[in-house]
User: What shape does this take?
Amino acid sequence: MKQLRLSLLGFGTVGRWLAEALHLRQAWLQQELDVVMTIVSVATAHHGFIYRGDGLDIPTLLELADTRQPLTAHPGVTHWANILEGLQATGGDVLAEATGATLRSGEPGLSYIRAALAHGMHVVTSSKGPMALAGSDLLSLARAQAVQLRMESTVMSGTPVLSTIREGMAGTNIRAIRGVLNGTVNSILSAMALGRTYAEALAEAQALGYAESDPTDDVEGDDAVAKTLILATVSFGRALTPEQVVRSGITTLTREQMQQALDQGKCIKHVSSLRLLSADGTEVSRATANSGSIPTRLEARVEPQALPLSDPLARIDGLLNAIVIQTDTPAEVTVIGPGAGRFQAGQGMLADLIAIAKSR
Ligand SMILES: NC(=O)c1ccc[n+]([C@@H]2O[C@H](COP(=O)([O-])OP(=O)(O)OC[C@H]3O[C@@H](n4cnc5c(N)ncnc54)[C@H](OP(=O)(O)O)[C@@H]3O)[C@@H](O)[C@H]2O)c1
Assistant: This one.
């Protein structure tokens, strides 16, 4: 039986779902994959880092969290107030990182992921910030350390987009990617297509809990830019900065513009796009770009676009997300699914953990 010792940083919505899922699937993991996954350490901002070498009891952890008791009340644990020190002192086979990393600095996730990779641990993360700002460097570090860094939940949550690109479509030449990658923005635009103003649609989304009280990261495109940067790294092997993404949000869109598009048989969507271009602006494949025969640049954009109704992205409504991957073979693949939610994010991390377990 293979053993996989996990360090789980972040025990909020996603971290707790993942812990519970591991507990519920324990027997299945052993029978089907011949692996025992044990959580040996957990950390949160308020409670620091706890560790027990023979594994933490998941129901006890969940009970402590649900009843707002300190995780240090778990029997037999060693505690570090400084999470990095705890992680470096104890290690494990895999870091499962689910802290609330910011899109501006990538912290705290970025430091944790770097430390774990440097320690020779595999990493799965649901945090966009670190992967958007330093994905290329982190993947290089993972390669140098001969470990895996997986991040399925960072784009379209647990809907399998990155594994589709990395594994399912391995060997294809990607020409371009287009996506509707933010459910909050898409639900606002769907409501505007039904006649609401931007302010009315935002207020509705906030009342339903789809939009934050400060919706800036969503409606100004920061969240979609972060996902676009991750896709640039994973799909094209190119590290772009946020400033290199041509970006415009949805806050100035009017009901009249939405109606005008509909009158023309179109629908306005907030589209993230990536495509390889030659110097004269012609689209080229990744294989041509990689051959180095001609200089190419990766164009990245996040902006409202009026799409014909025949476009698969035009038919994605509400909280759904979708991505269209254009390649040489097969010509075009579309993946549609939920782009948020604790089940989805946790499921993406679980799938990443299982991929690591299978490869060991
Ligand atoms: N929820 C979703 O639907 C979803 C979907 C896709 C991706 N994600 C991403 O997944 C990550 C986790 O999301 P979430 O919804 O689980 O967030 P959350 O409920 O706010 O939980 C965040 C957890 O991280 C801990 N934390 C915060 N700062 C920390 C620090 N400096 N060191 C160690 N732990 C720290 C928090 O500790 P305390 O409990 O002590 O505050 C909490 O346990 C985020 O990056 C999010 O963007 C979430």
Notes: The CA atoms of residues 220 and 249 lie 4 Å apart.
